[in-house]
Amino acid sequence: MNKTLLAAATALSMISVPAMADHHESGEMTADQQMMYDELSPADQAEFDTYSADQQTMYFGWNDALRGYYWSLNDQQQDAWWYLNDEQRATIFQIQAPEQRSAAWNSVLSQVAELEDGNAATRQAATPTSTSDMRFVSNAVVQNAPAPHQGEYPVCESDADDNCINAWAAGQRGPGVDRPLDYWPGEPASS
Fold first, then answer.
1. Which residues lie closer than 8 Å to 71 by C-beta, 6 or more apart?
2. Within 97-136, where are the H helices?
3. CA distance readout (Å), 79 to 23, 112, 116
4. Which of 47, 92, 149, 161 is 20 to 30 A from residue 102's alpha carbon, by CA?
5. What was the pLDDT predicted at 12?
């Protein structure tokens, strides 16, 4: 009789326990992370369970205000949220004016849509893609600044006038070195 009860109890426990335990039941979360997880609504917990391990780790790294803001976003914004880095997320969160925050989200959403459309076209062409260097900008024109110069600047020569110092300012005097003008030699550039 005891063997029958033990077998029945074992069978019943196997039926009531899911075949694959969730990460929060397997002990992978710290106590603080488990507490943050338990504070989520059942719907949010179900959504959280679909996130990759990297996304879950990022989520736990945000402060309470940022986590709360994330759950206040609509589905489209939440999807786009994962394309941003933490600095960009914090920047959008810190925008106080509703119209400015809305404009920022519109920009992010349009760029994510373009990126996803581009990725879909790229996948169809069977070309590998990389989004690790993605940058969100406010307009289509982006100019990369050169790396800062290290050490002392060289003296400018006749054919090079970038990343160099004027010969007169460098202390060179003599033939072929003209003194800079103390005045604007003609019409102002703005007229």
1. 40, 44
2. 98-124
3. 22, 9, 11
4. 47
5. 36
What pLDDT does 132 receive? 57
pLDDT exceeds 80 at position 48? yes
Cβ atoms 176, 164 nearer than 8 A: no
**Cα separation of 99 and 105, whole Å?**
10
User: Which residues in 13-109 belong to E strands, given as ranges?
Assistant: none
Q: Is 126 helix (H, G, I), strand (E, B) or coil?
A: coil
For tokens 């039926």, name the residue.
Answer: 15
**Is residue 129 over pLDDT 70?**
no
Is the distance from CB of 136 to CB of 145 less than 8 angstroms?
A: no
Confidence at residue 14, expressed as pLDDT on a 0 to 100 scale? 38
Residue 187 has pLDDT above 60, yes or no: yes
Would you call 52 helix, strand, or coil by DSSP? coil
For 88, the token pair is 């960009």
